[in-house]
Write a structure and sequence with these properties.
Layout lengths: L2 H30 L4 H25 L6 H16 L1 H59 L9 E9 L9 E7 L4
Length: 181
């Protein structure tokens, strides 16, 4: 093997370890913010695309030749990271997150819950005027008079017979024009 090929393998090995650390950050994000399986799949797809671009860019910088051994070297670098330093990093951030969750849970129980109970009590005492206003408005809405539709021309009777029968009585049509105000 020549020295350029060996040096390229070392670069890809280190690049794989750095990409492994990047995936560790993605896993940290997943621990902090819960994801469903679809979101995890989309994130992994984008991360693998990013890895492909990084490895392609590295091959362009190293002379434009890309070999299968470079991918193997990058994979071995990521595997070495996950089996050595990655375990330590995961243990550190897992314990940090557990301690942070305990602190936040304690703060929630001692500060937020009493404040929320006080706030709810204040709201319940001040609810009475708002309820009365609401009931007044609802009563006004229910008791309002429903008006007829106003048209420009309204006919009340087409034919009105005077005298009670249609035979021999004169008929008068009563019409009215109603204007909109």
């Amino acid at each position: 093997m020549d020295s350029v090929f060996t040096l390229s393998l070392c670069y890809y090995f280190v690049c794989g370890a750095i990409l492994g650390f990047g995936y560790e950050l993605l896993r940290l994000l997943r621990v902090c913010i819960r994801h469903n399986s679809f979101a995890v799949g989309v994130e992994d797809l984008f991360y693998l695309s990013l890895c492909g671009f990084v490895l392609f860019g590295l091959s362009v910088q190293l002379g434009g030749i890309f070999r299968f051994m470079y991918l193997v070297s990058a994979f071995l670098g990521a595997t070495a990271y996950f089996l050595t330093v990655g375990r330590l990093v995961k243990a550190v951030y897992s314990s940090f997150i557990k301690v942070l969750k305990r602190i936040l849970r304690f703060a929630y129980k001692k500060i937020v819950l009493p404040l929320s109970k006080t706030f709810v009590a204040i709201i319940h005492k001040s609810k009475l005027p708002f309820v009365k206003i609401h009931e007044f408005i609802i009563g006004k809405i229910k008791n309002r008079k429903i008006r007829l539709n106003i048209h420009t021309k309204m006919v009340y009777n087409e034919k009105n017979t005077i005298g009670g029968s249609d035979h021999g009585a004169r008929s008068v049509a009563i019409k009215a024009k109603v204007k909109k105000i």
